Amino acid sequence: MLIFLRDVSGGDWDAEQRFESHAKLAGNVKFTWTIKKKTKRWLGATLAALFCLWLAFVAYIDWAMHQPPEVFAHVMARMPMPAYFLFPFETMWFDARKGTLSAGDLAPDFTVETLSTKTPTQLASLWADKPVVLVFGSYT
Predict the structure, then answer these.
(1) Would you say the pTM of this structure is higher than 0.90?
(2) What phi and psi values does residue 31 have, to the nearest 5 degrees?
(3) Residue 79 lies inside a defined structural domain of this protein
(4) Residue 89 falls inside a structural domain
(5) CB contact at 8 A, 125 and 112
(6) For 18-24, which contacts have Cβ atoms below 8 Å and span 24 or more sequence positions?
(7) What is the per-residue pLDDT for 76?
(8) What's the total number of domains in the chain?
(9) Is residue 8 assigned to a domain?
(10) Structural domain of 23
(11) Per the domain annotation, does 10 fall within a domain?
(12) DSSP 113
């Protein structure tokens, strides 16, 4: 990369010419950036390669978010902390885990163990007799 200084006051710029103040220097000198064609090509190729690596990284994280929790936890356990700032984590997470249920839909049937007896209980067997309310999280 080359940087050229040019006098824009109309006079010839001489290496021995002295400016009397910084204000005059700032007013009479214009900075011009010139980048060689080879440098531009290298910079463009480097930025394109970095962009491709970033896309591959985001695609890998997106794939992991759509896997079962054990697989996702395995991937994220080895992720360095600064990597979380390289992609829109929260947006991708909500998109991956949004599911297909809407308000008013029946809950999918599943089997859980009861807290008191540790026996497997199927959700469908509970709502056959009475309404069932599912509470996820703390209610205290």
Answers:
(1) no
(2) -85, 130
(3) no
(4) no
(5) no
(6) none
(7) 87
(8) 1
(9) yes
(10) 1-34
(11) yes
(12) E
